[in-house]
Design goal:
About 25% of the residues lie in helices and about 35% in strands. It has about 190 residues and is an alpha/beta fold. The protein has a single domain, classed as Rossmann fold (3-Layer(aba) Sandwich). The structure holds glutamine (GLN). The site of glutamine has 11 residues, from helix 4.
Length: about 190
Amino acid sequence: MKIGVVAVQGAFIEHQRTLNKLNVENFLIRQKKDLEQPFDGLIFPGGESTAMGKLFTELDLFEPLDKLIKSGFPVFGTCAGLILIAEKLSNDDKKYFASMPITVKRNAYGRQLGSFETKSAFADIGEVPMVFIRAPYIDEVRGDTKILATVDGHIVAARYHNQLGTAFHPELTDDVSVHKYFIDMIAKKV
Ligand code: GLN
């Protein structure tokens, strides 16, 4: 099992650290040629989705990543990463890979609740710590998309076939269970 962490901007090191804790082989994707090696799953970190979107185009990474995701390749997006895979944004005209049939609201918690930490139930795992930083939430899920977690009535994690998205940052806590869920997803254990 080998995971590529997209590393053009944002909190990619923290994803590497979590994968290392799980003893899952991983590498950073910074340019097109990094995609030439065989690997099993892709992570889009948190950060700034607009900046990442621009960098993908500048670095010629958009098309190869887009092809990969649309071929059904396993992908996990956290926070800005969730925005990158959402089919629609409810408060922004932009869209990126648009591969997951969900509508996401950017910066959904407003200024006052810009950043917060909580705990909530996540699918089969149980309670997990959740760190939100200028986070989005999921307004709507469509098709086969399964809701995996909610906080205060808002959807904060969902799965659509091989795609997993969280509004929060599991990589910014000591908990490795959400990453383990992604690894199990790739191994078809969940
Ligand atoms: N607000 C950021 C965006 O819209 C996401 C924040 C994050 O990833 N922590 O891209």
